Amino acid sequence: MSSEKIIIAIDGYSSSGKSTMARRLAKTIGYRYIDSGAMYRAVTLYAMRNGMINSDGSVATDMLTAALPAIHIDFKVQGDGQQTMLNGEIVESEIRTLEVSNHVSPVATIPAVRHALVRMQRDMGESKGIVMDGRDIGTIVFPAAEMKVFCNATPERRAERRYKELREKGADVTYEEVLANVTERDHIDMTRKESPLRCADDAVMLDNSAMTIDEQNEWLLRLFHSIVDK
Ligand code: CDP
């Protein structure tokens, strides 16, 4: 088996199970896991807290762009998990609300936001040994990643999973609201000008609509070994 560490890029649609399988794989193989979506969510939370989301839901792009140097995002490893930090504050649960989900995709269309976060993501992958999930990891952030996966499942299945997750956390949301958010984010993510969501030519596609979490973890681990054990 080769001991060379690689870069693993896992992209896909909203709530397609990317983070769950990426996190598990990273733990199993001893790599660092980075949830790039959490970074876009943290920037969105900052914008919401600082009056940079207009009443019609649009983003005060110039204000947010000017504030970018003052936004510091980091991850704190804690036990088995990872906590997203925004300017030194743990915001892991704040960034997972439906309210943040409703504003994040417009924020993620802003080129200056993307450039700042992509720069940070590339720095994190400099010494390899990383699993990163998102929308543009295999296409823009790490086009030379040795392993690329593109995840999908039906919108209904994805909304069902996210609805369950939010309800378990005690959020007062309906399935219809979650489904609307999932489909709206897919649309914005696929049609934006700057690095739209698309499957890299050399990515392996996975439709996990009918897979359990264990099945998708096993699938991913097998793919990893088929690449590094050559
Ligand atoms: O809810 P889910 O886990 O599917 O999404 P996420 O990975 O937390 O990402 C939230 C949002 O951030 C996405 O809908 C995209 O608009 C944006 N994003 C992006 O543009 N590029 C990335 N690499 C990751 C996320």
What general form does the structure show? globular
How many strand elements? Answer: 8
- Helix and strand string, N-terminal first? EHEHHEEEHHEHEHHEH
Work out the helicity level: 40-55%
How would you sum up the major sheet? Answer: 5 strands, parallel
Strand content: 15-25%
Helix- and strand-based class?
Answer: alpha/beta
Count of helix runs:
9
Low-confidence stretches: none
Cα(first) to Cα(last) distance is 7 Å
What do the pLDDT scores average to? 95
Spatial strand sequence of the major β-sheet: 2-6-1-7-8
Bound molecules: cytidine-5'-diphosphate
Radius of gyration: 17 Å
What does this structure look like?
The chain has 230 residues and is of the alpha/beta class. The protein has nine helices and eight strands. The strands form two sheets. It has a five-stranded parallel beta sheet. A three-stranded antiparallel beta sheet has the order 3-4-5, covered by helices on one side. A hairpin with a 2-residue loop joins strand 4 and strand 5. Helix 2 crosses helix 4 and helix 7 crosses helix 8. The longest helix is centred in the C-terminal third of the chain and has 17 residues, at 175-191. 39% of the residues are buried. The model has no long low-confidence stretch (mean pLDDT 95). It binds cytidine-5'-diphosphate. Cytidine-5'-diphosphate binds at residues 14-15, 19, 36-37, 40-41, 104-105, 108, 134-137, 185, 189.
